[in-house]
Amino acid sequence: MSVRVRFAPSPTGYLHVGGLRTALYNYLFAKHHGGTFILRIEDTDQTRYVEGSVDDIVSSLEWAGIVPDESPQRGGDYGPYVQSDRTDLYRAYAKELIEKGMGYYAFDTAEELDRMRERQKAAGIAPRYDRSSMRNQFTLGPEETQRLLDLGEPAAVRMKVPITGEVKFHDVIRGNIVVPCKDVDDQILLKSDNFPTYHLANVVDDHTMAITHVIRGEEWLPSTPKHVLLYEGFGWEAPKFAHLPLLLNPDKTKLSKRQGDVATHDYINKGYFQEAFLNFIVLLGWNPSGEREIYSIDELVKEFQLEHVNKAGAVFDLKKLEWMNSQYMKSYVTNNLGYLVEQVQPTLRQRGVTASDEYVGNVVQLLHERITLITELADFGMYMFTDPVIDEEFKASVWKDNSADIIRGILDVIRTLDAENFNHDTVHNAISTYVKDNGMKFKDIGNILRLAVTGKSVGAGMMDTIAILGKDASVYRIERFLNSL
Ligand code: GLU
Q1: List of the chain residues with pLDDT < 70
Q2: Ligand 1 centre from 215 Cα, in Å?
């Protein structure tokens, strides 16, 4: 049987990084087995619907390259599966469950249910639907039930959970799980407004969409016994289950917005590399064998196994993400400088800077170790593209009486160099000869030369900086600086 998996987010907000991980694991698992990955929007709870969230989910997944293998036609368009398109199906199945004796009508009002919970609270028992004392098919009898239905009395459909016995299932990550039936509530499956709850729609869809593996977050583990009972009630074979570990803040509490960004689009907008971000996300809970940490998507597809997913929560460590991003930065500098240039050019254009791809590539090479995100290059490295702005505080801290003479001396040396053969070594040799001939050390000129050429106290090595600027620009900058004194 070929593998079919789904990512089934509810459109209640942006795509959370935990959701991205769930989607990624489903996607990798499908690809590893040559199977099918689908996207299903679970929007049965209309009260929690947030405008724009489907677009955010779809576009974040697209950015990540996690594209569904099936896109059903919806109206004139194609898109993910959407549960609100399928409500007739859930109603039909709710009816089937009643016919099979595994579901029943219940007519309780919200007030009646509140009173029931209060009674239970007062008696110190866990709040659960009390089938024997409430207004439902069993306490009212078949005739009264039919009469109320004919009258159009609001009725929910509940699941008939056995009073005794156990629900057993196997979780690929967590092993065998056994839950006593007495701990499972008679869950509402179809609300009195005829809309299904998550549980019914989820099980009906997973079955009718022939899902073989349900891979989802740990928070859904408590729902699984209900789902298993539903599969049994319908007489369907349940898919295999795998519940992924929680994502945690560094202090081991559940990952929360209060301690950092949790929306995938925040990381996209900041400019993390897609490959670095996915590589970081995949390691949150999945441990391949050995020490290796850097994996391309193709390698992940090859290596990914659900059996290697941990039970324990995984810490979302921003430092690790930054490290991962710089690893990718280094490798792009060597193997795909063009990709970096492509990302930097628009950020320069936004700031009104026009520069050749070749020059931008040189600046990226020069500065990449000093930034974490490629989007920082335009700000951090602006001094390589526009006339330097002098940091007066820096100037005051390094300037001496003879500084202007030294800078003039270096300017003369640079003027003598061949513009066609102007590189780190030629610049370095000429300036060190000058330094030696004048009985100085490099440290005597380093800061003031940096001040004259870049205006700033921090940056890359000066010889490389001058070499990349080129002879004309270096001469121009130093002259401009001297004129400003
Ligand atoms: N709709 C659920 C969610 O928002 C999906 C749970 C599942 O995958 O079964 O996460």
Answers
A1: none
A2: 9
